[in-house]
Structures are given as C-alpha cells and as structure tokens.
Amino acid sequence: MTDAFADDEQRWSQLMAAAHRGDTRLYEQLLRELADVIERYIRSRFGALSFTEDCVQECLLAIHTGRHTYDPQRAFRPWFFTIVRNKTVDLLRRSYAGERVASAALGESVVDAVEAPDEQLSAGDVLAQLQPNFRSALTLTKICGYTLAEAAERSGISESAMKSRVSRAVRAAELLLAQERNLE
Amino acid sequence: MTENREDLILDLVADLRPVRSAGRIGGALLIWLALAVGYSVFIVLATGPLREGALHNVVREPAFGVETLIAALAIIALAHAALRTAIPGTSSRIAALALPLALTAAWIAFYVIGLWYPAHPVSTLGARPHCLWQTVLFSIPSLVLMLWLSRRLLPLRPRSTGLLAGAAAAAIPGALMQLGCMYVPAHILGYHIGPVFIVAAIGFLVGPIALTARRTVPRSRGMPMH
After folding, report:
1. Yes or no, beta carbons of A24 and B16 under 8 Å apart
2. Which residues in chain A are closer than 8 Å to B9, comparing Cβ atoms?
3. What is the ipTM, given to two decimal places?
4. Cα–Cα distances in angstroms (integers) from residue A127 to residues A45, A117, A130, in the given order
5. Which of B33, B93, B131, B143 is the most exposed place for a label (fewest CB within 10 A)?
C-alpha cells in the first residue's frame, strides 16, 4: 500500500466520521475529493461515457443517503467503491432506455447531438478487456450515444440482438469491476 | 467541476445532519429476531397446538435437538446476511451467501437423510391441514419488517437482500412447524421447507420494488436530478 493510498484512506475515513457528527465543512471537502475520484475512476475504466457526470452525481447522492452505513472502524475504500461500481453499472443498464425516451421526445437521434463521436472514443481499462463485440456494443451505445437501432444498424445485427449484446456486455463489465475488489 | 455538480454538493452539505453509524448490524438483527420470532411463536400457537411431546423431544432426541439448533442458526445466518447485503463493501456476494446457504443446506440435509433415518420418530400426530400456506402467510410480516430494516441501510443489491430476507422470514415459521405440525420428513421438505423457497422467491421479486425507491435530497439551487 503506497503512502498516498494510505493517506487517502485515513483522511476519507476521518472526514466521513466528521460528517457523521454533522461537520459541514469537512463533509464538503470529502464530497469534492470523492467526486474527482469517481470521475477519474469511471474515465479510467470506460473512457468518456456519455453519462459520466450523471454517474458522479448519482454516486454522491448515494453516498449522502447511505453515509450512516459507513462504519469508521472499517476501511473506507471497499464501502465507497462498492457504491461507485454499483451506481456505474446501474446507469450503464438504464442509460439506453433513457436515451430512447429522450430520442422519441425530441424527435431526433441522440447521435445528432454528438458533434464528433469518434473523438470521444477512449479505451478505458474495462472496455479494453471486453470481447470486441461487447466493447463495440458499449462504445456505440454508451459513449457515442447511438440508440439501439442505430448501433444495431452500424453493427449489421438486429435491434434485439444488439439489446442482448449490450445487456451481456454490461454484465461482463460488472464482473470485471467486481474483480477489482481485491485491489482496493 | 460542472455547475450541476457544484450545486448538488452544496445541497448535500446543506442537507447534512448528524447520524449514528449503522455500519454494525447487530442492533437491527436483534430487533428483527426478537420481533419476528416472538410474532411467529405467537401466531403458530394461536392457530393450533404444538405436537404433543414436541418440546420434550428436542431435549430427549439428540438428533432432533441438533436439527432444531441448525434451523435456529440458519435463521440467524440468513437474517444476518440479508442485513449485511444492505451495507456496501462488507463482503462479496459469495462470501455473504456462503454461511447461510451452508447452514440451510445442512438443515435440509437432516430431512433428506431423515427419509431413511429420521431424527425423530415419524408421526402424523399434530398434522395441520394448511401448514404450507400458513407458513407462507405467517412469514409475510417478518419479511416486511426485514425489508423495512434493510431499506434504512443502503441495499445496492435488492434482489439478494430480498431473497435472503424472504428465506429468513419463512425459515422461522418453517422451523416452528416441526414442533407444531406432524413429523414426517417428506412432508416437512415439501410443506415446511418448501415455503422457505416460495417466500425467498417473493423476496427476490419484491426486493427491487421495496428497496430501490429513489431517495431525494431537497434541491435548493440546481436542476433536479435525472
């Protein structure tokens, strides 16, 4: 364990213990630090997801509502990263449903709103470890923001096959994230 | 940092209240066990007598006593695991399930072995005509209580939490039925242990509904969360 790793662990634990007592100044410091960590975590594993900011905010909200479940006698990282992983996978699952609703409401393809989708491609750790067809499915739907139909058309498969592929890709990503438990 | 995130952090800080750490679940576990066991004993006794000599046999028949003890340990382990899955980072899903599943399997194994070597003299004395549905119905309040206690934590895997909560809730009346209904291993497996799987399945299905309602924080500045 590096010094910085241990320092972060101890500081976050102390800041959360202070938050339990109601110290708003230290709680704000904690949330700001964690927000940056969450963003780096997501970018390092998935590249530039189209909903990274949503994910950061979902995680912060979960940390806030569940802060009482952190036991200051235990390590902070396992508690924190369990929340982050879970919320990230939740959003991966939910995002394309939301995109379809948004797309229908706006009457336009979500991809039209992305100026240069190719530039947003980035091989995060998790994406890089996925099978090529899973990586492609997640990249098209979660990073480029294509709808299922558009992603299916570009991949030359049916929409239902793409839906299934995205679902299995999310599951594979979830398993890869779960394997990181030992590295925390 | 985006403006929305900045707003959210300020809202969360403004919403901060002192809290007591619930990272240790002993208190919630004891509350649940006391209320669920107390209620289950009451309802089982209120709907019919215990089988004649059943309590005496717990002491007199060592294998029956061990079987009852394993059932009690399985209930505690299932309830503990249900609550533990509602606290992030305490263990992996496999580690959380290992002990309760092992104890539940051991409990069931007693009846499977009992098909040939029963732990207690086989008897139809004390038979209850609707023991399967009684066990299912009697377990619902305990399931609701466990879901409520879990909901107060942070259940990130609501299906696992619901499944374990359902199994724990039904295991109590299921175990009591071995004192309150007839002792025939094949009957016990189908009509007393079977409901444990039924209610666990109910918990698995209702868990995501009961445990994942969105909690919101009053937003004073930014746009609502989407």
Report:
1. yes
2. 28, 31-32, 35, 60
3. 0.78
4. 7, 16, 5
5. B93
Distances (CA, A) of B27 to A34, B22, B30, B33: 30, 9, 5, 10
Output B183 or B219, whichever has higher pLDDT. Answer: B183
Which residues of chain B have a CB within 8 Å of the CB of A80? Answer: 88-89
Which chain B residue has the Cα nearest residue A64? B12
Spatial neighbors of B105 by CB under 8 A, at least 6 apart, are none
Angstrom distance (rounded) from CA A86 to CA A150? 27
pLDDT tens-digit series, residues A19-55: 999 999 999 999 999 999 999 888 887 776 667 888 8
pLDDT of residue A11: 92
Whole-model pTM: value is 0.77
DSSP string, B124-169: -TT--TTHHHHHHHHHHHHHHHHHHHHHTS--S-HHHHHHHHHHHH
Of A113 and B8, the one with more pLDDT: B8
Would you state the pLDDT for residue B202?
Answer: 97
> Which residues in chain A touch residue B16, judged by CB atoms under 8 angstroms apart?
19, 22, 24, 27, 64
Q: Which of B13, B17, B23 lies closest to A70 in CB terms?
A: B23
Contact (CB, 8 A) for A16 and A76 = yes
- The per-residue pLDDT for range A151-160, each reduced to its tens digit, is 888 888 888 8
Q: List the single residue in A22, A66, A83 with the smallest CB-CB distance to B18.
A: A22
- pLDDT computed for residue A21 by the predictor: 93
User: How far is Cα B94 from Cα B84, in angstroms, rounded to an integer?
Assistant: 12
Residues of B within 8 A of A53 (CB-CB) are 2, 4-5
Inter-chain touch A61–B9, beta carbons under 8 Å: no
Q: How far is CA B130 from the centre of its chain?
A: 22
Structure tokens at A80: 């924190």
Q: Per the CB < 8 Å rule, is B5 touching A20?
A: no
Of B74, B63, B45, B34, which Cα lies nearest the Cα of B176? B45
Give the residue-averaged pLDDT of A58-68: 92
Q: Collect all residues of chain B within an 8 Å Cβ-Cβ radius of residue A24.
A: 13-14, 16
Per-residue pLDDT, averaged over B197-222, amounts to: 78
Rounded percentage of chain A residues whose pLDDT exceeds 70: 78
The answer to whether B81 touches B164, Cβ cutoff 8 Å, is yes
Task: Yes or no: say if B131 and B191 are a contact pair by the CB < 8 Å rule.
Answer: yes
